[in-house]
Fold this protein.
Amino acid sequence: MADPVTIGALTASALAMEKTPASPARRAVLAEVIDSQSGEEQAALHVLAHELIAALKRGGAIGLDIGRLEAMEVQLGDITVREGTGARMEEVLVHGTFSTGNISVGGPAKKA
């Protein structure tokens, strides 16, 4: 098992990648951290990465999925999702305020 410092470094690098996924410098830092791990740790990370990708592909209930959002201000309404996706936007560039009304996706709540 990787030590907590290594896990922290991987997490910090991954979070930085989320903000600028096309950054060659950030990719290089993440690759360097992964490459410095033992073969056993790299294999374990490989398995976890594939499990994460599979879980993301399975999806689930998503209220608002925005790939990239640039706005001076963001205002969101109530988001209620039981199944499916409420709204998916690849890139949103707004010079003022980006706002949504209430988003409700799927049928009524199922009774237990």
Q: What stands out?
A: The helical segments are 4-19, 24-35, 39-58. The radius of gyration is 18 Å.
